[in-house]
Amino acid sequence: MSRKFAKSSSILLDDNPLWYRDAVIYEVHVRAFHDGNGDGIGDFQGLSEKLDYLQDLGVTALWLLPFYVSPLKDDGYDIADYTQIHPDYGTLHDFRLFLRAAHERGIRVITELVINHTSDQHPWFLRARDAKPGTSARNFYVWSDTQERYPEARIIFKDFEPSNWSWDPMAKAYYWHRFYSHQPDLNFDNPEVHKAIFDALDFWLDMGVDGLRLDAVPYLYEREGTNCENLAETHAFLKKLRQHVDSKYKNRMLLAEANQWPEDAVAYFGDGDECHMAFHFPVMPRLFMSLYMEDRFPIIDILDQTPAIPESSQWALFLRNHDELTLEMVTDEDRDYMYKVYASDPRARINLGIRRRLAPLLATNRRRVELLNSLLFSLPGTPVIYYGDEIGMGDNIYLGDRNGVRTPMQWSADRNAGFSRTNPQRLYLPVIIDPEHHYETVNVDAQQQNPASLLWWMKRLVLLRKNYQAFGRGTIEFLLPDNRKVLVFVRRLSDEIILVVANLSRFVNYVELDLSAYKGMVPVELFGHTRFPSMS
Ligand code: BGC
Fold this sequence. Notes:
The structure is a single chain. The chain has helices at residues 2-11, 30-33, 44-49, 51-57, 92-104, 123-130, 191-207, 232-248, 262-265, 283-293, 297-304, 332-342, 358-361, 366-378, 444-448, 454-467, 470-473; strands spanning 25-28, 61-64, 68-69, 81-85, 108-114, 143-144, 165-168, 173-176, 211-215, 253-256, 277-279, 314-318, 325-326, 349-350, 353-354, 382-386, 475-479, 486-493, 496-503. Strand 10 (253-256), helix 9 and strand 11 (277-279) form a beta-alpha-beta unit. Helix content is 29%, strand content 15%. The protein is globular, with a radius of gyration of 23 Å. The chain has an 8-stranded parallel β-barrel with strand order 1-2-5-9-10-11-12-16. It has a 3-stranded antiparallel beta sheet with strand order 6-8-7, with no helix packed on it. The protein has a 3-stranded antiparallel beta sheet with strand order 13-15-14, covered by helices on one side. It is of the alpha/beta class. Among the domains are: 123-176, Oligo-1,6-glucosidase, domain 2 (Alpha-Beta Complex), CATH 3.90.400; 475-531, Golgi alpha-mannosidase II (Immunoglobulin-like, Sandwich), CATH 2.60.40.1180. It binds beta-D-glucopyranose. Beta-D-glucopyranose is lined by residues 74, 77, 114, 179, 215-216, 257, 322-323.
């Protein structure tokens, strides 16, 4: 039954294996978007009800954060059952209805495949801790009698965890975890683990899911004498995963979450035979740096350090996401700078990053928000919008962990921001009521009625992007005029030639561009279609 459903559902989409290169992705947490059953928690019913909004915004793919059965100690990245929906969010039937409704609108769906670790409540872990050492059941996870192994592996959640090893009193051994101690790492040296992961992947791809974000993918294997990141074994496994996907399915996409320097991140594309996409983490903080420094250098420098990628591959670019604005891929000096200028309040800092949304980071300055979004949409890669940033939503740094950037979507000035009909005290997280970003003013309803709003500007940006394939597939060439406050580049795909000029300064600037290569052509401003004098 489910297979039949899936097949008919994916038929609704165009047959385009490279769809991700021209996509505009919208990242959303089911829990945070819309509450359909009035219990204070967003669900698939609610998300389905808001698909018209997403279609109107113009996005072509949704990336959903984990919605599986989980104790929710890491907001669902701690999975206790890979093939069941958390009851808070609905049922598998609700998910299928949602998927079909999204496909009917030409919107593809990307879900999460968290394969590095599970919850300590996953039956695999409960079984492993009871199993005899040396058995396959035990070896689903990585065990040790001492905490001395793999000392070169860094601690990622350094505000919360003192070690990558934790003691399990049942197993009477230490187990390995790169994230929270309630998230034991799976052992990829065990072939049974591969099989179990392939089964989970098949379950969702059979249903018709279009893409999978591979969470925390650099850490799959551990080897003594290494930092246990980006190992050859990890790449070999991913190639095997890709082969499996290619042999069974059409038009699907794997997206690597590898928070790494460009030369390591690029390895996740393989020779076009590993992941189709990978996030470009290092470019993100440099966009913010360039803006504050009013200097194009950080952006150009990191893109210069980024190797070319295979023809069918694509970077995923983002300004903000559900995590902290990570500062792992910057130098110590740059991190100090970013903290100083973007997180002077220590409460805004977490691990090696900043837990703030886009608008508050940019001092709610509409022009800066537009500038960074313009760069997000015009630099090489596929843009990912974080839910709520299209209306300039605020955050709440007084909530724990990264919850301050995961508050309910603001739909209207009604009770609970139109997110839920429930008693406000029952909401999974409080709505934003800080005076500058109060939901009574910052909400979809108000902005839909005002064609000059940020939401309308974002809609125009999305449309503009979709009209020109050069943004997703074209080459990039930087022009280097004397004035470093101005970032200039040309995106080109056959006869589509797009000149992007971004003034990073707060003030009006003067720049002289050598456009002699385009002599005789007539520039047309893309937002207003205004024709400029031809170039002499
Ligand atoms: C996710 C985080 C999560 C971590 C551990 C990351 O890559 O983006 O939200 O806490 O993985 O699963």
